[in-house]
Amino acid sequence: DSGVTQTPKHLITATGQRVTLRCSPRSGDLSVYWYQQSLDQGLQFLIQYYNGEERAKGNILERFSAQQFPDLHSELNLSSLELGDSALYFCASSNSGANVLTFGAGSRLTVL
Amino acid sequence: GQQLNQSPQSMFIQEGEDVSMNCTSSSIFNTWLWYKQDPGEGPVLLIALYKAGELTSNGRLTAQFGITRKDSFLNISASIPSDVGIYFCAGLRMNYGGSQGNLIFGKGTKLSVKP
To answer: How far does Cα B113 stand from its chain's mean position?
Structure first.
């Protein structure tokens, strides 16, 4: 157990729908990072939050959004889902920068 | 955008064999990291490298930060069955303002056991 908790573990939904993925960072970690892992693209950085504030943005689509709450948990919202959004979504947390990320076990999203 | 070219894409190992994989980029990185991902799990950090030319070991794993800062290598000696999984390299650069950038990952090297 890495200490980073992601829910749900698996999610199956239909095109056009909206889902929310949840992440609780490791105790004491202020930064949360979201990554998308698909078969052909590897791990792609989506977005980072630090203590509730957006810190950096990567290849995140406009249909996706995220936030980090005062208790430091984070949610990734994916809307108007398309087949190509099917992927593993990982959350990682850190208390000292991107070189010491601890990853959760991921949420596997399947869009049918 | 920044890309890391990781090779090989996949390889089959026999127990006891040594394994090598590498990661190259057209960009310079300040930090190189190697992660391993087991099925159903997130990536776990194996080795972190912070200086050009640095050679660091973690048990049977040895990684090197290339002199040009554009590449890194990972070697696994005397492989065992639990070494199977996907190995990712990742690079980190500093932004122009001096703040830390974000991790760029390679596409992974999948290690399997020879049938």
So the answer is: 19
CB contact under 8 A, A99 and B103: yes
Q: What tens digit of pLDDT does each residue of A45-77 get?
A: 999 999 999 998 998 999 999 999 999 999 999
- Which of B44, B65, B103 to mutate against chain A (most A CBs within 10 Å)? B103
Read off the pLDDT of residues A65-110 as tens digits, 9 standing for 90 and up: 999 999 999 999 999 999 999 999 999 999 877 778 999 999 999 9
Which residue in the set B40, B42, B100 is minimally distant from A98, CB to CB? Answer: B100
What is the β-pairing status of strands A53-57 and A42-50? Answer: antiparallel
Q: Tell me: pLDDT of B95 over 80.
A: no
DSSP state of A78: E
**Ranges assigned E (strand) in chain B:** 5-7, 10-13, 19-24, 31-37, 44-49, 55-58, 61-65, 71-76, 85-92, 104-105, 109-113
Closest CA to A78 of A20, A36, A22: A20
The alpha-helical segments, DSSP class H, found in chain A are: none
Q: Which of B80, B88, B91 is nearest to B109 (CA)?
A: B88
